Amino acid sequence: MFNSQEIISTIEMVKNEHLDVRAVTLGVNLFDCVSHDLTTFKNNIRSKIIKKAENLVSTCNMVGEKYGIEVVNKRISISPIALVGAPFSASQMVEIAHTLNDIAREVNIDFLGGFSALVEKGMATGDCALIEALPEALAQTQRLCASVNVATTRSGINMDAVLKMAHAIKRASELSKSDDGLACAKLCVFANIPQDMPFMAGAYLGVGEADAVINVGVSGPGVVKKAIERAIETSPNLDLGKIAEIIKNTACKVTRVGELIGREVAENLNIKFGVVDLSLAPTPTVGDSIGEIFQTLGLTSIGVPGSTAALAMLNDAVKKGGAFASSHVGGLSGAFIPVSEDLNIAEAAANGYLSIEKLEAMTCVCSVGLDMVPVPGDISEETLAGIIADEMAIGMINNKTTATRIIPVPGKKAGEKVSFGGLLGEATIMNVPHATNKDSFVTRGGRIPAPIHSLKN
Fold first, then answer.
1. Do residues 338 and 289 touch, judged by C-beta distance below 8 A?
2. For the purposes of burial, counting CB atoms within 10 Å of the CB of 263, is it exposed (0-12), middle (13-18) or buried (19 or more)?
3. Which 8-state DSSP code applies to residue 115?
């Protein structure tokens, strides 16, 4: 239950600090839709998803209006298509992608995630077909999102899959050239992918999940920024330990709001509630930025020395606050640092404060990885594979989730501007040291073995 002070505080967060429920994501299990006949399979998945999701948008709107808290995005995640669609070829996978896109449009959701594969230890027939289909599938659809898990702490890094994903990213970029490579914004490459994440583009419904489940993503970077500002204004010499406590308490309040909305949506739909994911996911709006939090803490800009330590404190405090507020915190729950989706981070990159090397270092302590990073269109597949492999290594060794969502922008070079529109924002294309023909490391293939601390049994 909320006391009167919490209610007043929450109203202030909603009115002036950009608090919202960023995403309500309905997970739908498709394993009972399996068929060797493509038409039957497409009919089965259409029937099941629409049955589960036909009232999702209207219910989210109703609950949001009841509490005065907007549910910004309504989404669906499904079982990995590489598994449930294992009998089908790459061209048939593209057909499935179109069916899923049509379903998303029919039920009026923003995105549908789960055009996915889990290949950390090897690639089966369905996995290979899906990866081959990715460029066409993403370039030809608008609401479909994809993810491929190529590494885990338990299994190591599948370097054959890493190289295939580099090829898929380059091809997807070329096929969406007229949109500055926008297809790549709907594709994430993961290490240690969570099974219950409500945020796109990485959301899918894990194999161990229920038949249908509601997962909620709450985001409040503006709320955290304002809380720190008020505290420092009152006590200018506040130390970092006390600031961390303020962030933790704020995250606790935000998590409770998210769980309240999520449980009511789930109850109205007669679907099981899953998790609340408190990830500080920014937008290109002023005042709703992760980067602005760094400046509030006293740094000139995100990317300057001290940024990694500040991010570590922020990420940890958010997780602690969420864990205190709910027994069902999941997904990622921490801080995202997407370049184009955060106005302040995009400006830091444009002004030279934030390089791709510093960004990679910061991903050691944040909740995801190299996110929405535009790079020159002529980047080589070997360089892309190297970037992905580096990020996967961080996740594997540190036993955490990391990911890459990299966008080679066709025909453009480092320093030029690119705009993806809407929540995807705009940014300056970042400079990347290119691999040469002598850099054969990523082309050797095989699997980088798991670290010794994977042997925890």
1. no
2. middle
3. E
Q: Specify the CATH number of the domain 22-295+310-336.
A: 3.20.70.20
Query: What's the token pair of residue 270?
Result: 């007669």
CA-based Rg of the chain, rounded to a whole angstrom? 21
For the chain, which residues make up each domain, given as ranges? Answer: 22-295+310-336
Residues 6+ apart with CB under 8 A from 362: 307, 308, 311, 337
For range 39-60, the mean pLDDT? 96
Burial class (CB in 10 A: 0-12, 13-18, 19+), 1: exposed
Strands 417-419 and 111-118: unpaired
Q: Are 245 and 266 in contact (CB under 8 A)?
A: no
What CA dihedral angle connects 150, 153, 159 and 163, to 10 degrees?
A: 30
pLDDT by residue (tens digit) across 112-136?
Answer: 999 999 999 999 999 999 999 999 9
The two beta strands, 156-158 and 20-28, are unpaired
pLDDT score at 438: 66
Alpha-carbon distance of 314 to 322, in angstroms, equals: 12
What's the rounded Cα separation, in Å, for the pair 69 and 22? 10
